Amino acid sequence: MVLWSLVLGALLVVIVGYVCLPGILRQRRPQEPPLDKGTVPWLGHAIAFRRNTFEFLKCMWTKHGDVFTVQLGGQYFTFVMDPLSFGPILKDAKRKLDFSQYARGLVLKVFGYRAINGNNQMIHSASTKHLMGNGLEDLNKVMLDSLSLIMLGPKGRSLDASCWREDGLFHFCYDILFKAGYLSLFGYTKDKEQDLLQAEELFTQFRKFDLLFPRFVYSLLGPREWLEVGRLQHLFYKMLSVKHNQEKDGISNWICYMLRFLREQGAAPDMQDKFNFVMLWASQGNTGPTSFWALFFLLKHPEAMRAVREEATQVLGKARLEAGQSFPFQLSALQCTPVLDSVMEETLRLRAAPALFRVVHEDYILKMASGKEYRLRHGDIVGLFPYLSVHMDPDIHPEPTAFKYNRFLNPNGTRKVDFHKAGKKIHHYTMPWGSGVSICPGRFLALSEIKLFVLLMVTYFDIELVDPDTPMPPVDPQRWGFGTIQPTHDVRFRYRLQPTE
Protein backbone atom coordinates (compact mmCIF):
# COMPACT_ATOMS: atom_id res chain seq x y z
CA MET A 1 0.00 0.00 0.00
CA VAL A 2 2.87 2.35 0.88
CA LEU A 3 4.59 1.45 -2.40
CA TRP A 4 1.48 2.29 -4.44
CA SER A 5 1.14 5.60 -2.58
CA LEU A 6 4.73 6.46 -3.46
CA VAL A 7 4.18 5.51 -7.11
CA LEU A 8 0.98 7.54 -7.35
CA GLY A 9 2.64 10.46 -5.61
CA ALA A 10 5.56 10.37 -8.01
CA LEU A 11 3.19 10.11 -10.97
CA LEU A 12 1.24 13.13 -9.72
CA VAL A 13 4.46 15.14 -9.40
CA VAL A 14 5.41 14.21 -12.98
CA ILE A 15 1.98 15.19 -14.33
CA VAL A 16 1.89 18.48 -12.45
CA GLY A 17 5.44 19.22 -13.55
CA TYR A 18 4.61 18.41 -17.18
CA VAL A 19 1.57 20.67 -17.12
CA CYS A 20 3.02 23.55 -15.13
CA LEU A 21 6.68 23.55 -16.13
CA PRO A 22 6.23 25.24 -19.55
CA GLY A 23 4.30 28.07 -17.88
CA ILE A 24 6.82 28.41 -15.07
CA LEU A 25 9.82 28.43 -17.41
CA ARG A 26 8.39 30.66 -20.13
CA GLN A 27 10.07 34.03 -20.32
CA ARG A 28 9.52 37.00 -22.58
CA ARG A 29 11.87 36.95 -25.57
CA PRO A 30 13.17 39.97 -27.47
CA GLN A 31 10.49 41.70 -29.58
CA GLU A 32 7.64 39.75 -27.92
CA PRO A 33 4.67 41.56 -26.31
CA PRO A 34 4.63 42.14 -22.55
CA LEU A 35 4.10 38.80 -20.79
CA ASP A 36 1.83 38.45 -17.75
CA LYS A 37 1.65 34.88 -16.44
CA GLY A 38 -0.27 35.68 -13.26
CA THR A 39 0.60 34.28 -9.85
CA VAL A 40 -0.90 30.78 -10.10
CA PRO A 41 1.14 28.21 -12.07
CA TRP A 42 -0.61 26.95 -15.23
CA LEU A 43 -3.94 28.66 -14.37
CA GLY A 44 -2.42 32.13 -14.67
CA HIS A 45 -5.26 34.65 -15.04
CA ALA A 46 -7.91 32.11 -16.05
CA ILE A 47 -10.18 32.73 -13.07
CA ALA A 48 -10.19 36.52 -13.47
CA PHE A 49 -10.69 36.21 -17.24
CA ARG A 50 -13.62 33.84 -16.88
CA ARG A 51 -15.20 35.83 -14.08
CA ASN A 52 -15.38 39.06 -16.12
CA THR A 53 -13.56 39.22 -19.46
CA PHE A 54 -14.37 42.89 -19.98
CA GLU A 55 -12.92 44.09 -16.66
CA PHE A 56 -9.90 41.79 -16.91
CA LEU A 57 -8.91 42.97 -20.39
CA LYS A 58 -9.50 46.61 -19.44
CA CYS A 59 -7.12 46.16 -16.52
CA MET A 60 -4.46 44.41 -18.65
CA TRP A 61 -4.77 47.09 -21.35
CA THR A 62 -4.16 49.83 -18.78
CA LYS A 63 -1.23 47.92 -17.33
CA HIS A 64 0.54 46.73 -20.49
CA GLY A 65 -0.65 48.82 -23.46
CA ASP A 66 -2.11 47.86 -26.84
CA VAL A 67 -0.53 44.38 -27.06
CA PHE A 68 0.05 41.88 -24.25
CA THR A 69 0.29 38.14 -23.69
CA VAL A 70 -1.46 36.47 -20.75
CA GLN A 71 -1.55 32.90 -19.50
CA LEU A 72 -5.04 31.39 -19.29
CA GLY A 73 -5.24 27.79 -18.14
CA GLY A 74 -1.92 26.67 -19.57
CA GLN A 75 -2.46 28.47 -22.88
CA TYR A 76 -0.97 31.80 -23.91
CA PHE A 77 -3.23 34.44 -25.46
CA THR A 78 -1.93 37.61 -27.08
CA PHE A 79 -4.61 40.32 -27.12
CA VAL A 80 -4.40 43.19 -29.60
CA MET A 81 -6.35 46.25 -28.46
CA ASP A 82 -5.55 48.79 -31.20
CA PRO A 83 -8.30 48.58 -33.88
CA LEU A 84 -6.07 50.35 -36.41
CA SER A 85 -3.87 47.24 -36.25
CA PHE A 86 -6.64 44.66 -36.76
CA GLY A 87 -6.30 44.54 -40.56
CA PRO A 88 -3.30 42.17 -40.88
CA ILE A 89 -4.79 39.78 -38.32
CA LEU A 90 -8.21 39.62 -39.97
CA LYS A 91 -6.86 39.33 -43.52
CA ASP A 92 -3.76 37.17 -42.85
CA ALA A 93 -3.02 36.47 -46.50
CA LYS A 94 -0.22 34.00 -45.60
CA ARG A 95 -2.57 31.87 -43.45
CA LYS A 96 -0.30 31.85 -40.42
CA LEU A 97 -3.26 32.55 -38.12
CA ASP A 98 -5.98 29.89 -38.11
CA PHE A 99 -9.57 30.42 -36.98
CA SER A 100 -10.90 26.97 -37.88
CA GLN A 101 -8.68 25.06 -35.46
CA TYR A 102 -10.06 26.96 -32.48
CA ALA A 103 -13.64 26.73 -33.78
CA ARG A 104 -13.42 22.97 -34.43
CA GLY A 105 -12.34 22.34 -30.85
CA LEU A 106 -15.15 24.47 -29.48
CA VAL A 107 -17.98 22.83 -31.46
CA LEU A 108 -16.63 19.36 -30.66
CA LYS A 109 -16.63 20.10 -26.94
CA VAL A 110 -19.96 21.93 -26.75
CA PHE A 111 -22.07 20.18 -29.39
CA GLY A 112 -20.26 16.89 -29.93
CA TYR A 113 -19.86 17.67 -33.64
CA ARG A 114 -16.59 16.67 -35.28
CA ALA A 115 -16.09 18.95 -38.29
CA ILE A 116 -15.17 17.31 -41.59
CA ASN A 117 -12.82 18.62 -44.25
CA GLY A 118 -14.32 21.55 -46.10
CA ASN A 119 -16.82 22.24 -43.32
CA ASN A 120 -16.25 26.01 -43.12
CA GLN A 121 -16.24 26.42 -46.89
CA MET A 122 -19.49 24.45 -47.07
CA ILE A 123 -21.22 26.66 -44.51
CA HIS A 124 -20.09 29.86 -46.24
CA SER A 125 -21.13 28.49 -49.64
CA ALA A 126 -24.58 27.50 -48.32
CA SER A 127 -25.00 30.88 -46.63
CA THR A 128 -24.02 32.79 -49.76
CA LYS A 129 -26.49 30.78 -51.81
CA HIS A 130 -29.45 30.70 -49.41
CA LEU A 131 -29.01 33.53 -46.89
CA MET A 132 -28.46 36.35 -49.38
CA GLY A 133 -30.37 37.70 -52.37
CA ASN A 134 -33.34 35.63 -53.54
CA GLY A 135 -32.55 32.84 -51.11
CA LEU A 136 -32.80 35.23 -48.17
CA GLU A 137 -36.02 36.74 -49.49
CA ASP A 138 -37.61 33.27 -49.74
CA LEU A 139 -36.57 32.46 -46.19
CA ASN A 140 -37.81 35.84 -44.95
CA LYS A 141 -41.27 35.02 -46.34
CA VAL A 142 -41.33 31.84 -44.29
CA MET A 143 -40.02 33.71 -41.25
CA LEU A 144 -42.73 36.36 -41.58
CA ASP A 145 -45.44 33.67 -41.70
CA SER A 146 -43.87 31.94 -38.69
CA LEU A 147 -43.78 35.16 -36.71
CA SER A 148 -47.44 35.94 -37.42
CA LEU A 149 -48.40 32.35 -36.53
CA ILE A 150 -46.62 32.54 -33.18
CA MET A 151 -47.65 36.09 -32.32
CA LEU A 152 -51.32 35.62 -33.22
CA GLY A 153 -51.82 31.89 -32.62
CA PRO A 154 -52.77 29.16 -35.12
CA LYS A 155 -56.45 30.17 -35.20
CA GLY A 156 -55.98 33.85 -35.91
CA ARG A 157 -56.19 36.80 -33.57
CA SER A 158 -56.31 34.90 -30.32
CA LEU A 159 -55.20 38.02 -28.46
CA ASP A 160 -57.97 40.33 -27.23
CA ALA A 161 -57.12 43.82 -28.47
CA SER A 162 -58.88 45.35 -25.48
CA CYS A 163 -56.75 43.54 -22.88
CA TRP A 164 -53.17 44.12 -21.87
CA ARG A 165 -50.91 41.11 -21.33
CA GLU A 166 -47.85 41.23 -19.13
CA ASP A 167 -44.60 39.30 -19.56
CA GLY A 168 -40.86 39.56 -19.17
CA LEU A 169 -39.52 41.40 -22.21
CA PHE A 170 -36.41 39.21 -22.50
CA HIS A 171 -38.41 35.98 -22.28
CA PHE A 172 -41.05 37.29 -24.69
CA CYS A 173 -38.52 38.25 -27.38
CA TYR A 174 -36.31 35.18 -27.00
CA ASP A 175 -39.30 32.83 -27.00
CA ILE A 176 -40.88 34.26 -30.16
CA LEU A 177 -37.66 34.63 -32.17
CA PHE A 178 -36.45 31.15 -31.21
CA LYS A 179 -39.68 29.41 -32.15
CA ALA A 180 -40.09 31.33 -35.39
CA GLY A 181 -36.49 30.66 -36.37
CA TYR A 182 -36.65 26.98 -35.47
CA LEU A 183 -39.85 26.35 -37.42
CA SER A 184 -38.64 28.37 -40.42
CA LEU A 185 -35.37 26.46 -40.65
CA PHE A 186 -36.38 22.95 -39.61
CA GLY A 187 -39.88 22.80 -41.04
CA TYR A 188 -43.47 22.02 -40.04
CA THR A 189 -45.69 18.97 -39.81
CA LYS A 190 -49.35 19.07 -40.84
CA ASP A 191 -50.38 19.84 -37.26
CA LYS A 192 -49.48 23.47 -36.59
CA GLU A 193 -50.70 23.43 -32.98
CA GLN A 194 -48.50 20.45 -32.23
CA ASP A 195 -45.58 22.17 -33.95
CA LEU A 196 -45.99 25.18 -31.67
CA LEU A 197 -46.11 22.99 -28.57
CA GLN A 198 -42.96 21.18 -29.65
CA ALA A 199 -41.21 24.47 -30.41
CA GLU A 200 -42.20 25.77 -26.96
CA GLU A 201 -40.76 22.68 -25.25
CA LEU A 202 -37.61 22.93 -27.33
CA PHE A 203 -37.17 26.56 -26.28
CA THR A 204 -37.60 25.63 -22.60
CA GLN A 205 -34.80 23.07 -22.92
CA PHE A 206 -32.69 25.42 -25.04
CA ARG A 207 -32.77 28.05 -22.29
CA LYS A 208 -31.55 25.50 -19.76
CA PHE A 209 -28.60 24.74 -22.02
CA ASP A 210 -28.10 28.45 -22.75
CA LEU A 211 -27.76 29.31 -19.06
CA LEU A 212 -25.10 26.62 -18.59
CA PHE A 213 -23.29 27.43 -21.83
CA PRO A 214 -20.63 29.95 -20.66
CA ARG A 215 -19.46 27.82 -17.76
CA PHE A 216 -19.67 24.69 -19.92
CA VAL A 217 -17.24 26.23 -22.42
CA TYR A 218 -14.81 26.94 -19.57
CA SER A 219 -15.34 23.54 -17.89
CA LEU A 220 -16.65 25.14 -14.68
CA LEU A 221 -19.78 23.00 -14.17
CA GLY A 222 -20.57 21.00 -11.07
CA PRO A 223 -21.19 17.20 -11.26
CA ARG A 224 -24.98 17.53 -11.55
CA GLU A 225 -24.63 20.27 -14.16
CA TRP A 226 -22.39 18.03 -16.28
CA LEU A 227 -25.10 15.37 -16.17
CA GLU A 228 -27.71 17.95 -17.13
CA VAL A 229 -25.65 19.14 -20.09
CA GLY A 230 -25.31 15.54 -21.29
CA ARG A 231 -29.07 15.04 -21.01
CA LEU A 232 -29.77 18.23 -22.94
CA GLN A 233 -27.28 17.38 -25.67
CA HIS A 234 -28.90 14.01 -26.30
CA LEU A 235 -32.36 15.58 -26.22
CA PHE A 236 -31.37 18.02 -28.98
CA TYR A 237 -29.70 15.27 -31.02
CA LYS A 238 -33.00 13.38 -30.93
CA MET A 239 -35.31 16.35 -31.52
CA LEU A 240 -33.20 17.67 -34.41
CA SER A 241 -32.32 14.29 -35.88
CA VAL A 242 -32.36 13.74 -39.61
CA LYS A 243 -34.80 10.87 -39.04
CA HIS A 244 -37.18 13.12 -37.11
CA ASN A 245 -36.99 15.86 -39.73
CA GLN A 246 -37.97 13.45 -42.50
CA GLU A 247 -41.51 13.72 -41.15
CA LYS A 248 -41.58 17.48 -41.85
CA ASP A 249 -42.23 19.71 -44.82
CA GLY A 250 -40.62 23.02 -45.66
CA ILE A 251 -37.16 22.41 -44.22
CA SER A 252 -35.11 25.38 -45.36
CA ASN A 253 -32.92 25.08 -48.43
CA TRP A 254 -30.03 26.30 -46.28
CA ILE A 255 -30.25 23.33 -43.92
CA CYS A 256 -30.94 20.88 -46.78
CA TYR A 257 -27.90 22.10 -48.72
CA MET A 258 -25.55 21.55 -45.79
CA LEU A 259 -26.96 18.15 -44.82
CA ARG A 260 -26.67 16.99 -48.43
CA PHE A 261 -23.00 17.96 -48.37
CA LEU A 262 -22.44 16.02 -45.15
CA ARG A 263 -24.12 12.92 -46.61
CA GLU A 264 -22.05 13.13 -49.77
CA GLN A 265 -18.90 13.35 -47.65
CA GLY A 266 -19.92 10.23 -45.73
CA ALA A 267 -20.82 11.87 -42.42
CA ALA A 268 -22.61 9.41 -40.10
CA PRO A 269 -26.29 10.11 -39.31
CA ASP A 270 -25.51 10.86 -35.65
CA MET A 271 -22.94 13.45 -36.75
CA GLN A 272 -25.57 15.05 -39.00
CA ASP A 273 -27.89 15.26 -35.97
CA LYS A 274 -25.15 17.01 -33.99
CA PHE A 275 -24.54 19.38 -36.88
CA ASN A 276 -28.22 20.38 -36.74
CA PHE A 277 -27.71 21.24 -33.07
CA VAL A 278 -24.75 23.47 -34.02
CA MET A 279 -26.90 25.24 -36.62
CA LEU A 280 -29.80 25.73 -34.21
CA TRP A 281 -27.47 27.36 -31.72
CA ALA A 282 -25.67 29.45 -34.32
CA SER A 283 -28.91 30.75 -35.83
CA GLN A 284 -30.99 31.27 -32.67
CA GLY A 285 -28.59 31.92 -29.80
CA ASN A 286 -28.36 35.70 -30.34
CA THR A 287 -31.45 36.88 -32.22
CA GLY A 288 -33.78 36.81 -29.21
CA PRO A 289 -31.40 38.61 -26.83
CA THR A 290 -30.62 41.23 -29.50
CA SER A 291 -34.32 41.90 -30.14
CA PHE A 292 -34.81 42.34 -26.38
CA TRP A 293 -32.18 45.08 -26.21
CA ALA A 294 -33.51 46.76 -29.36
CA LEU A 295 -37.06 46.97 -27.98
CA PHE A 296 -35.86 47.98 -24.53
CA PHE A 297 -33.80 50.85 -25.96
CA LEU A 298 -36.79 51.98 -28.03
CA LEU A 299 -39.08 51.86 -24.99
CA LYS A 300 -36.60 53.94 -22.98
CA HIS A 301 -36.08 56.49 -25.79
CA PRO A 302 -39.44 57.82 -27.04
CA GLU A 303 -37.85 59.91 -29.81
CA ALA A 304 -36.26 56.74 -31.23
CA MET A 305 -39.57 54.85 -30.98
CA ARG A 306 -41.37 57.65 -32.85
CA ALA A 307 -38.77 57.65 -35.62
CA VAL A 308 -38.94 53.87 -36.05
CA ARG A 309 -42.74 53.83 -36.02
CA GLU A 310 -42.91 56.58 -38.61
CA GLU A 311 -40.54 54.64 -40.86
CA ALA A 312 -42.46 51.39 -40.24
CA THR A 313 -45.70 53.04 -41.34
CA GLN A 314 -44.09 54.09 -44.60
CA VAL A 315 -42.61 50.63 -45.20
CA LEU A 316 -45.61 48.49 -44.22
CA GLY A 317 -48.32 50.73 -45.62
CA LYS A 318 -51.80 49.34 -44.94
CA ALA A 319 -50.72 45.70 -44.71
CA ARG A 320 -52.60 43.79 -42.01
CA LEU A 321 -51.19 41.11 -39.74
CA GLU A 322 -53.36 38.00 -40.05
CA ALA A 323 -52.44 34.48 -38.97
CA GLY A 324 -52.77 31.82 -41.63
CA GLN A 325 -52.44 34.36 -44.41
CA SER A 326 -49.37 35.53 -46.29
CA PHE A 327 -48.41 38.97 -45.12
CA PRO A 328 -48.84 41.43 -48.04
CA PHE A 329 -45.46 43.06 -47.64
CA GLN A 330 -42.65 43.47 -50.15
CA LEU A 331 -39.65 42.12 -48.26
CA SER A 332 -37.33 44.15 -50.46
CA ALA A 333 -38.58 47.10 -48.36
CA LEU A 334 -36.34 45.81 -45.57
CA GLN A 335 -33.54 47.40 -47.56
CA CYS A 336 -35.21 50.80 -47.17
CA THR A 337 -35.20 51.23 -43.40
CA PRO A 338 -32.22 53.49 -42.57
CA VAL A 339 -33.61 54.51 -39.18
CA LEU A 340 -34.22 50.94 -38.04
CA ASP A 341 -30.84 49.94 -39.49
CA SER A 342 -29.18 52.61 -37.36
CA VAL A 343 -31.10 51.44 -34.29
CA MET A 344 -29.89 47.88 -34.92
CA GLU A 345 -26.28 48.95 -35.44
CA GLU A 346 -26.38 50.98 -32.24
CA THR A 347 -27.99 48.10 -30.33
CA LEU A 348 -25.33 45.69 -31.55
CA ARG A 349 -22.56 48.17 -30.79
CA LEU A 350 -23.77 48.40 -27.20
CA ARG A 351 -24.68 44.77 -26.60
CA ALA A 352 -22.79 42.47 -29.00
CA ALA A 353 -19.48 41.45 -27.47
CA PRO A 354 -17.88 38.53 -29.34
CA ALA A 355 -14.28 37.50 -28.82
CA LEU A 356 -12.29 36.62 -31.96
CA PHE A 357 -9.48 34.09 -31.74
CA ARG A 358 -6.80 32.82 -34.14
CA VAL A 359 -4.28 30.03 -33.45
CA VAL A 360 -0.70 30.98 -34.44
CA HIS A 361 0.38 28.21 -36.84
CA GLU A 362 3.98 29.37 -37.08
CA ASP A 363 6.01 32.18 -35.58
CA TYR A 364 4.40 35.40 -36.75
CA ILE A 365 5.47 39.04 -36.95
CA LEU A 366 2.60 41.33 -35.97
CA LYS A 367 2.96 44.77 -37.56
CA MET A 368 1.12 47.46 -35.63
CA ALA A 369 -0.27 50.66 -37.17
CA SER A 370 2.30 52.59 -35.15
CA GLY A 371 5.08 50.81 -37.06
CA LYS A 372 6.12 48.73 -34.07
CA GLU A 373 6.52 44.98 -34.62
CA TYR A 374 5.92 42.11 -32.23
CA ARG A 375 6.93 38.48 -32.56
CA LEU A 376 4.21 35.93 -31.72
CA ARG A 377 5.01 32.30 -30.92
CA HIS A 378 3.80 29.22 -32.73
CA GLY A 379 1.00 27.57 -30.73
CA ASP A 380 -0.18 30.73 -28.99
CA ILE A 381 -3.58 32.29 -29.65
CA VAL A 382 -4.25 35.83 -30.89
CA GLY A 383 -7.36 37.43 -29.42
CA LEU A 384 -9.46 40.48 -30.31
CA PHE A 385 -12.23 41.87 -28.10
CA PRO A 386 -13.81 44.61 -30.23
CA TYR A 387 -16.45 45.56 -27.66
CA LEU A 388 -13.81 47.12 -25.42
CA SER A 389 -11.29 48.26 -28.02
CA VAL A 390 -13.74 49.51 -30.69
CA HIS A 391 -17.37 49.77 -29.55
CA MET A 392 -16.49 51.56 -26.31
CA ASP A 393 -13.74 53.79 -27.75
CA PRO A 394 -14.83 57.44 -27.23
CA ASP A 395 -12.53 58.53 -30.06
CA ILE A 396 -14.53 56.39 -32.52
CA HIS A 397 -17.92 56.70 -30.83
CA PRO A 398 -18.35 59.81 -28.64
CA GLU A 399 -20.28 59.08 -25.44
CA PRO A 400 -19.83 55.36 -26.10
CA THR A 401 -22.10 54.09 -23.33
CA ALA A 402 -25.07 56.19 -24.49
CA PHE A 403 -27.75 54.88 -26.84
CA LYS A 404 -28.06 57.22 -29.84
CA TYR A 405 -30.54 55.82 -32.33
CA ASN A 406 -29.21 58.03 -35.16
CA ARG A 407 -25.50 57.44 -34.49
CA PHE A 408 -25.21 55.56 -37.79
CA LEU A 409 -27.20 58.09 -39.86
CA ASN A 410 -25.86 60.99 -41.89
CA PRO A 411 -27.75 64.31 -41.72
CA ASN A 412 -29.41 63.46 -45.07
CA GLY A 413 -30.76 60.17 -43.68
CA THR A 414 -28.30 57.85 -45.43
CA ARG A 415 -26.18 55.30 -43.60
CA LYS A 416 -23.10 56.71 -41.91
CA VAL A 417 -19.93 54.70 -42.52
CA ASP A 418 -17.22 57.31 -41.90
CA PHE A 419 -15.72 56.91 -38.44
CA HIS A 420 -12.26 57.93 -37.31
CA LYS A 421 -9.66 57.15 -34.68
CA ALA A 422 -6.62 59.31 -34.04
CA GLY A 423 -7.56 61.32 -37.12
CA LYS A 424 -7.54 58.25 -39.38
CA LYS A 425 -10.58 56.68 -41.02
CA ILE A 426 -11.24 53.33 -39.43
CA HIS A 427 -12.64 50.38 -41.35
CA HIS A 428 -13.65 48.23 -38.37
CA TYR A 429 -15.80 50.75 -36.48
CA THR A 430 -18.15 48.03 -35.20
CA MET A 431 -17.64 44.26 -35.24
CA PRO A 432 -20.77 42.59 -33.80
CA TRP A 433 -20.59 39.74 -36.33
CA GLY A 434 -16.85 39.17 -36.13
CA SER A 435 -14.78 39.84 -39.24
CA GLY A 436 -12.56 38.22 -41.85
CA VAL A 437 -12.78 34.44 -42.20
CA SER A 438 -14.70 34.17 -38.92
CA ILE A 439 -17.46 36.64 -39.83
CA CYS A 440 -20.90 35.21 -39.06
CA PRO A 441 -22.20 33.68 -42.32
CA GLY A 442 -25.82 33.98 -41.14
CA ARG A 443 -25.66 37.67 -40.23
CA PHE A 444 -28.06 38.79 -42.98
CA LEU A 445 -30.70 36.26 -41.91
CA ALA A 446 -30.29 37.13 -38.22
CA LEU A 447 -30.58 40.86 -38.89
CA SER A 448 -33.65 40.50 -41.11
CA GLU A 449 -35.34 38.25 -38.49
CA ILE A 450 -34.85 40.87 -35.80
CA LYS A 451 -35.93 43.72 -38.06
CA LEU A 452 -39.12 41.90 -39.07
CA PHE A 453 -39.94 41.19 -35.43
CA VAL A 454 -39.32 44.79 -34.33
CA LEU A 455 -41.36 46.17 -37.24
CA LEU A 456 -44.31 43.95 -36.33
CA MET A 457 -44.09 44.79 -32.62
CA VAL A 458 -43.94 48.58 -33.03
CA THR A 459 -46.62 48.65 -35.76
CA TYR A 460 -49.30 46.17 -34.68
CA PHE A 461 -48.90 46.18 -30.90
CA ASP A 462 -49.12 48.72 -28.13
CA ILE A 463 -46.10 48.08 -25.90
CA GLU A 464 -44.89 49.79 -22.75
CA LEU A 465 -42.78 49.07 -19.70
CA VAL A 466 -44.82 48.22 -16.60
CA ASP A 467 -42.59 50.68 -14.73
CA PRO A 468 -41.50 53.49 -17.10
CA ASP A 469 -38.62 54.28 -14.73
CA THR A 470 -37.19 50.76 -14.95
CA PRO A 471 -33.40 51.17 -15.09
CA MET A 472 -31.17 49.44 -17.58
CA PRO A 473 -30.61 45.90 -16.27
CA PRO A 474 -26.95 45.01 -15.65
CA VAL A 475 -25.34 42.62 -18.11
CA ASP A 476 -24.39 39.09 -17.07
CA PRO A 477 -20.55 39.14 -16.87
CA GLN A 478 -20.42 35.44 -17.79
CA ARG A 479 -21.66 36.28 -21.30
CA TRP A 480 -18.71 38.47 -22.37
CA GLY A 481 -17.14 36.95 -25.48
CA PHE A 482 -20.18 34.86 -26.47
CA GLY A 483 -22.04 37.10 -28.91
CA THR A 484 -24.91 39.26 -27.63
CA ILE A 485 -24.68 39.72 -23.88
CA GLN A 486 -27.73 39.02 -21.75
CA PRO A 487 -29.26 40.88 -18.78
CA THR A 488 -28.88 39.58 -15.25
CA HIS A 489 -32.66 39.82 -14.83
CA ASP A 490 -35.73 40.34 -16.97
CA VAL A 491 -37.76 43.54 -17.36
CA ARG A 492 -41.55 43.49 -17.05
CA PHE A 493 -43.56 44.99 -19.91
CA ARG A 494 -47.09 44.82 -21.18
CA TYR A 495 -48.52 44.58 -24.67
CA ARG A 496 -51.78 44.35 -26.54
CA LEU A 497 -52.72 43.87 -30.15
CA GLN A 498 -53.94 47.04 -31.75
CA PRO A 499 -57.57 46.80 -32.93
CA THR A 500 -58.21 46.45 -36.66
CA GLU A 501 -59.94 49.32 -38.35
Automatic annotation (TrEMBL):
Keyword field contains Membrane: yes
GO biological process, one term: lipid metabolic process
Gene Ontology molecular functions: metal ion binding
Record keywords, A-Z: Endoplasmic reticulum, Heme, Iron, Lipid biosynthesis, Lipid metabolism, Membrane, Metal-binding, Transmembrane, Transmembrane helix
Binding site for substrate: K109, N286
CC terms in the record's Gene Ontology section: endoplasmic reticulum membrane
Keyword Iron applies: yes
Domain of life: Eukaryota
Name under which the protein is recorded: 7-alpha-hydroxycholest-4-en-3-one 12-alpha-hydroxylase
Species of provenance: Daubentonia madagascariensis
